[in-house]
Amino acid sequence: MDIDYQKLRLDGIYQQSQKGDLMLRVKVPAGVLSSEQAEKICSISEQFSNQLLHLTCRGSIEFHWLQYRDVSQALAMLSAVGLTSRGACGGAVRGVSCSSSFSADFGIAQTLARKLHRHFAGNPHFEGLPKKFKIGVDAGYADARHLIQDIGLVYTKTVDAVHLYDVWCAGGLGREPQPAIVYEQAVPEHELIPLIEAVVRVYAQNTPPPKRLKFLLNQIGEAALREKVEAGRHHGTAPEPRATLDGPLTLPGDDPIEIPVFAGELKSADLQRLAGFAREYGNGYLALTADQNILLLLQKASDRLSLQKQLQTTGLLTDLPENRIRFRVCPGNHKCRMGLSPTRDVAMQICQALGDKQLTGTLAISGCSNACSQPQLATLGIITRKSIQQKDGTRTPLFDLFRQKDAGFGEVIRENLDIAGLLDAIVQESR
Ligand code: SF4
Question: Which of 108, 161, 291, 406 shows its CA 20 to 30 Å from the CA of 247?
Answer without folding.
Answer: 291
